[in-house]
Amino acid sequence: MKTTDRFIDGNTAVAYSVAQTMNAIHQHARIIGMVSGYPITPNTEVLKVLNQAIEEERLRAVFRNATSEHAGFGILKGAALLGAPAFTASSSQGIALGVEELMDIAFKRLPIVLFCASRAVGGLNILNDLSDMTRLLVKSGWVVLVANTGQEAYDLMPIAFGLANTAQWPVVVCLDGFRETHRSRNVGLEENKKFLKFFRDVGWVRHTNLADRQHPTVTGQLFTDNMYEELTYAHHRAIQSVGTRHYVDGIGETDLFRRIAECFRLAFDRPESYDVVSEFETADAELVIVSVGSFDWTVRSAVRTLRDAGIPAGALSVRLVVPFPYDMIRYFLRDRKAVVVIDRSFDPDTGYFLEKVRHALYDTPEHERPAIEGTTMALGGRYVRPELLTELLRTAWQNLKNGNPLSLPDYADVRR
After folding, report:
1. Vertex 147, ends 169 and 118: CA angle to 5°?
2. Distance between CA atoms of 145 and 138, rounded to whole angstroms?
3. 100-122 tens-digit pLDDT
4. What is the pTM of this model?
5. Helical H segments across 172-282, by residue range
6. What is the bridge-based pairing of β-strands 33-37 and 61-65?
7. Rounded distance, CA 92 to CA 124, Å?
């Protein structure tokens, strides 16, 4: 049976992928998974679809309703300490409520997978932007992946489970709330045997099992100051192994994401592997626009228009946010004339991703370092017309050609 196209939204695509993933792990390793959580807009449908699949015995897993997101993460900690695949979905204030558990999960290195429908944080709202990612998740110690579409979210879920178990580290996959979680489009659903082949290649190891009396394990012990820093350093080295080095010269030992993604490509017969970034028209680009999430499609539309006008523009979308792929960013952006970074979340200083890109290029020789500026837009899911972005970039390019700074506004689409 070949890939089947289904017209479904992003939430449903994620739920289908998690169900196929957990069934494949059960078939391969004979371990039943755990799904727990608390409903929150805009990803309630994920847990709903999974719960229904479990009730109808189409998913070999256990579902536990939680009294809050904090409690849901606690339930998953117990499952992970038994070596079971564990999954939940949350967003915004739900993640904020569970931050204490998120950090403990990372410190215990439990391979839990979280789906985050990205949403604004702060104030009473259910609006879309990347605030829960940049203000909560990136500092929690989890590996953070970003999908731009429902199809990418579907594909990244088995990769996230494989990466979490191989690295012994929790992984979150983010998808723009409402913009993509509720947008229906054709998603290619793969046959179950491909998921099974993937996990036979990647494997699923029961790293911890507190119920194993033959091999007793201790967890949650008190750390003193004579070992805390060494343990934290070991954690730092472990998360860095997911992928911050050796990008340009091939897949190295400290490049777990790309190794797992290559296994996915082979198991699912894909023409290309998922990489830590996604590039568009960058080969000869002198102006490169960096973005994160589904806004990449608006950027690509602007790039096409700019190229039609003779401006050599390109786009770069970051897929692996934590650990940040500094080497790959440096490789793609050095020797350009200008780089524009678009942030979609509130930051008390400059934009989160603007600072990351500046850091990546800080050590490059001056003659290779492009002009770098950033702007914040599309907060709260505000629609940004491609024409507005195109004109903003056209003006910035003209300023550069005239020997002036790019002069981007801090907030490009705010009403003044």
Report:
1. 85
2. 10
3. 999 999 999 999 999 999 999 98
4. 0.94
5. 192-202, 228-240, 256-267
6. parallel
7. 11
